[in-house]
Amino acid sequence: MTMKVHEIFESICGEGPVIGVPAIFIRLYGCNLKCDFCDTKQDDFYDISVNDVSEAISASVNGTRVVCWTGGEPTIQLNEMLRTISLLKTSGFDFDHIVETNGTIITADIVKANKDKISVWIISPKDNQTAKYWITAIHDDKTLVNMIHLKFVISSFDELPSELGNMRFYVQPKLTVDGDSDPVSAFKSLVEQMWKFIVIVPNVVILPQLHKIMGVR
Ligand code: SF4
Known about the structure:
Blueprint: E1 2-12, E2 22-28, E3 46-49, H1 50-59, E4 66-70, H2 78-90, E5 96-101, H3 108-113, E6 120-123, H4 128-140, E7 148-154, E8 169-173, H5 183-195, E9 204-206, H6 210-214
Parallel strand pairs: 2-4, 4-5, 5-6, 6-7, 7-8, 8-9
Antiparallel strand pairs: 1-2, 1-3
Helix pairs in contact: 1-2
Bound molecules: iron/sulfur cluster.
């Protein structure tokens, strides 16, 4: 079994609930969406066996205990990802696995069925229908609360779905694709905007893109 990988590297998590956590990143190739603000360079990939990905992860061990599966959209290659995680577990490597996804391919049942393999799903909906699906899923099944973290990439409050209410969720500023946006200014601007709406969404967490501020991958 092989998978299409864009790059494997180590860095600190720059976004969402795991911001600042050192991790091994597996950036899988391809996405099923075409967001106009997408800043992920996906111009090339290589085919690599799941065995070799598993070995690359285990060989990177320098104290890092977290693997972040990202993309593109990593769940396009869900079976390959799960197979790699199983191989690591069978070999005795006890990493925490995080998946960053747009949430359009997986379901709440898939999240629950794989809770022993993937501890954290960072779901960043890009359309209202997907957002409503995950908000309802978390609302209806509290066992999902610690597994799923919703993250919205926005320029203004009115881009958020109205159903969030008291739910805890993350926002980060939407930057321009050409790299002209200053990530610090964009973050400050978002904080200022969100302050006006705290009464409506009291459990919002406003985060910058740390890796953009640091200028690292
Ligand atoms: S879902 Fe993410 S990776 Fe895919 S096009 Fe949108 S921003 Fe880019």
